[in-house]
TrEMBL record:
Keywords: Disulfide bond, Electron transport, Membrane, Mitochondrion, Mitochondrion inner membrane, Respiratory chain, Transport. Accessory subunit of the mitochondrial membrane respiratory chain NADH dehydrogenase (Complex I), that is believed not to be involved in catalysis. Complex I functions in the transfer of electrons from NADH to the respiratory chain. The immediate electron acceptor for the enzyme is believed to be ubiquinone. Transmembrane segments: none annotated. It is found in: Mitochondrion inner membrane; Mitochondrion intermembrane space. Residues 89-113 are annotated as: Disordered. Belongs to the complex I NDUFB7 subunit family. The keyword Mitochondrion applies. It is a peripheral membrane protein. GO terms for cellular component: mitochondrial inner membrane; mitochondrial intermembrane space. Its main location: mitochondrion. Pfam families: NDUF_B7. This is NADH dehydrogenase [ubiquinone] 1 beta subcomplex subunit 7. The lineage of its organism: Eukaryota, Viridiplantae, Streptophyta, Embryophyta, Tracheophyta.
């Protein structure tokens, strides 16, 4: 496997599609930090929480679905980071130098791009 082929394997961003639209998230008053690929599960969870007065034993099915989605996103990011580190290590062993600014990007691709 060449370095160019390995570099193509590291795709930034999530493989999950963005289901909730920006308008839906604004309408449901989803806080900006929570507007990710799991927001479509957070909207019904928050509705259930309000309806059930935030009782912790209520809305378990909705909460489990949302938390599972968030867990999968975190695991996907961790896997991407591991691939990036392995690629950098291989480059370092091969004696290649990275071009200026070609490190890990601070901001990944946008959800709707």
């Amino acid at each position: 496997m060449s370095a160019a082929a390995a570099e193509e394997d590291v795709k930034l961003g999530s493989s999950k599609p963005m289901i909730a639209t920006q308008a839906e998230m604004v309408e449901e008053r989803v806080p900006i930090p929570y507007r990710d690929q799991c927001a479509h599960l957070l909207i019904p969870l928050n509705k259930c929480r309000v309806k059930e007065f935030y009782l912790p034993w209520k809305c378990e099915v909705e909460r489990h679905g949302y938390e599972k989605c968030e867990y999968e996103l975190v695991m996907e990011r961790m896997l991407q980071m591991q691939k990036i580190r392995e690629l950098e290590e291989r480059r370092k062993k091969a004696g290649q130098t990275q071009p200026q600014g070609a490190g890990i990007p601070i901001i990944g691709s946008t959800a709707n791009a």
